[in-house]
Amino acid sequence: MEKLSDLNIIHSVLRGNDADFSLLIDRYKDKAYSLLLRMLKNEMDAEEVLQDSFLKAYNALEKFKEQAKFSTWFYKIVYNTALSFIASKRKRQDDETSSIDDFHYLKSEEIEIYAETEDANHYIHKLVNKLPVKNGIILILFYIDGLSLSEISEIMNLSLVNTKVTLHRSRNALRDLILKHNYQEELL
Amino acid sequence: MNELDKKLNELIDNQLGKDELDQFNKVIETDEEVLKKLRALRGVDNSLKKMEHSKAPAGINEKIMNVISSSKNVISSSSNKVFYSIISIFGLLSILIVSFSIGKTNSNEISEKFHEYSDSVLGSIKSIIPNFISEISGGILIAFGILTIVILSFISVFEAHKSFRKELDSFH
User: I want to staple B94 with a disulfide (CB 3.0 to 4.6 A). Which of A52, B69, B82, B145 is the partner?
Assistant: First the structure.
């Protein structure tokens, strides 16, 4: 069976077939949930914001401009909803503004992760969760979702240069830790 | 971030031009440390490409669709409230018109006072609305009021029936 495009589904929902919205939920729930877990660091909060984000997207579906990609538009809703949630809960989001160079805690936690992990891949993936929110999200959007740097900069409301530099810094920080443990050959 | 790190990242992302790439390859051939850094960065890149999404909780589709359908009910009930308010205003206006015409036929003091008062209100309304409407008699106004109520009530019953059917459909 031919796979429906996001746009086909949106048109169907706008024609009154509300049930078709669940196709979009199916397509984006895991991606959005991964981002939210990274940002909120709590499964219950991530689920709550996930529901809220889909509700917002549903209510704003008529305003969706077809020249944009649905994924970029939806991720922007998810990202902003999570930021509002954090602000409303008055959570400390110091790592949102901190630079990768400020990571004293990464170095201390890294030792613990190194002791727990079985292989280099597992070690890297665990470290991604310890990066600052901004860095972690850029890595997820770039590597798992395959978004371009310009799409990521649009979602996160950052300049293209800032997005690119953050991606490079995140990789460099991970690379330095890989070199520290001589993991480079194992990962190639 | 130094220039070397920037170049290494650009190399990983295939963003270096041919000249830059040739130049960089010469550096890699002669500098063991740069080669080591490049291999480590490629390793990180390979590993990050293997990352996977976390799975959303089970049953999340149903939860989200329920949230959406309950939010739609809230919107429809609030729009019903607006609808009923409009009907009430029309009803009130019609009652006023009926009272006004009854007041015209009675001759006691209260009805005369009411008549004077309503005349002044009607006068000011007539000055606002176009001439051809102000010449319409009281009887026609009453008939118009009743007709409006009947039409609005019919629409209200139709809307209620429609939302009830939608609710029934959601159970299937």
Answer: B145
Q: Decide: A49 and A82 in contact? Cβ < 8 Å.
A: yes
Report DSSP letters for chain B, one per residue: --HHHHHHHHHHTT---HHHHHHHHHHHHH-HHHHHHHHHHHHHHHHHHT--PPPPPTTHHHHHHHHHHHHHHHHHHHHHHHHHHHHHHHHHHHHHHHHHHHHHH--SHHHHHHHHHHHHHHHHHHHHS-HHHHTS-HHHHHHHHHHHHHHHHHHHHHHHHHHHHHHHHHH-
| Contacts with A47 from chain B: Cβ below 8 Å | 56-57, 60
On chain A, the residues whose CB falls within 8 A of the CB of B78 are none
Give the gap in angstroms from C-alpha A124 to the nearest C-alpha of chain B: 7
ipTM of the complex: 0.84
Q: Do B47 and A121 touch (CB under 8 A)?
A: yes
> How far off is chain B from A92, nearest CA to CA, in Å?
24
Going residue by residue through chain B (172 aa), what tens digit of pLDDT does each one get?
688 899 999 999 999 999 989 988 898 889 999 999 999 999 999 999 999 888 999 999 999 999 888 877 655 555 556 666 776 777 777 777 766 666 555 556 666 666 676 677 667 766 766 565 555 566 676 777 778 888 888 888 887 777 666 655 544 4
Q: How close does chain A come to B41, measured CA to CA in Å?
A: 5
In this complex, is the C-beta atom of A161 within 8 Å of any C-beta atom belonging to chain B? no
